[in-house]
Every structure is written in C-alpha cells, then in structure tokens.
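Field guide to reading this record: the first block holds the primary sequence, the second block holds the structure written as discrete tokens, and the final block holds curator observations. Each block starts with its own label. This record concerns Radical SAM protein, catalogued under organism Neobittarella massiliensis.

BLOCK 1 — SEQUENCE
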Amino acid sequence: MQRYSVIPGHHARELVLLKGGPCAWGRCAFCDYIRDNSTDELLCDRVNASVLARVTGQTGQLEVINSGSVFELTPGTMAALRRVVEQKQIKKLYFECHWSYRHRLQEVRDYFGVPIVFKCGIETFDDDFRNRVLKKGIVYDDLQEVRRYFDSVCLLVGIQGQTKEMLDRDVKILLEHFPLGCINVFCENSTDVRADAQLAQWFCQKYAHLQNDPRIDFLTDNTDFGVG
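BLOCK 2 — STRUCTURE
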C-alpha cells in the first residue's frame, strides 16, 4: 500500500493516504475502499504517524485522504496532522468528506487554522443515478447549496447505466459552478458495479483537454494520485 506521494502540476501538493475509522455512510455501491478502515485506533495512529513523517512541506500544500471523511480520523491522528501543518508550514489543506458532514466543516477550519479546500464525492449531478444506483445518499435543493459547502466536487465516469448526455451535463455543471474538480474514470473492483469501457474511452477522448485544465484533476486510474 502506497500512502505518500507528491502531485505535480498547477496545484502541486503532497498527498497522504491515512487509515481512519469506519466510514459513517459506508453504503456507496461502487466502493470497496472502506476495507482500509479500522476500529483499532492505536493501529490507525501508528500507520498514520509513519506516513505523516514523510511530509516535507515542499509545496506548502497537503491533501489528506482516507477511506471515508476527515471526521473519521482518530483524535491522535488529527493532533499529529496539526503538528505537521505547523512544523512544515503547510499553507493549504485538502480534505474530502461526505455530504452528511456539510454542517461541520467549520470545525475543521477552526482546528487547523489554515485555508482548506473541501471536496465532495458527488459522482454525478443526475439525482436518480447518484442515489438509486450509486447509493450516495446525497440530496440537495439546488447547486448553490452544494457550492455553499464545497469548493471541489468529484465525478465518477464510465459506469454501466450512464449515458453520454449525462456525462456531458456533469462536466458542464462542474466547470460552470465550481472552481475545482476531480474526474475519476471508474475502475472495476469487487463490487457489483460494472464499468462501461466504451463510454469511458469516448469520455477520455472528448475531454482529453481537461487533463491540462488547471481546475481539474483527471484520473484515468484509481492510483493516478500515486497512492493506493
């Protein structure tokens, strides 16, 4: 398991994959990532301490991911992370968290005292596909509600049942309403969700230019960030 990397490019940053507690939602149909979770806090803290020790502060920015949300990191890991932010002079943090935590984001800002980019795995702006098929449990009244809480949204593309029109609409909304975004091409795993290789190929060809867009992280493989 690779748990540390440096992401080059427009938003160069170090990235750590930490071990957290069980995902509070834990029902996404496509996700087997939560197998990295553990209820053993001492184990989590031990693993995470060795990962955080690799952070150098070389870019001034650090992205922290875990198989869930930032709120599922242990108190010990959060304290260790705050020490790293202070000692390595980290100027900006990136965290991902589930929609259900949207009212608690200020707690994290107050805890670290540096600007934070919060990312949310919306996966698609098609409400039916997002909740009935992907089981995301994300319901909102309008896009401004999402933008109010999150600076960046993650899209998941290339799944059986998606259409070209659906993906076109997702990209259009992302680019028009959010300053940052992450596009992930779905890679089959141990879940029952199946990839649509032809749709993914079409998408990657049509939107290849987004790989050079400073607003977008475009991941064609789930280890493109250098961890996993």
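BLOCK 3 — OBSERVATIONS
Helices lie at 41-52, 75-87, 105-112, 127-133, 143-149, 164-177, 197-206.
Strands lie at 4-7, 13-18, 61-66, 92-96, 116-123, 152-157, 180-185, 216-219.
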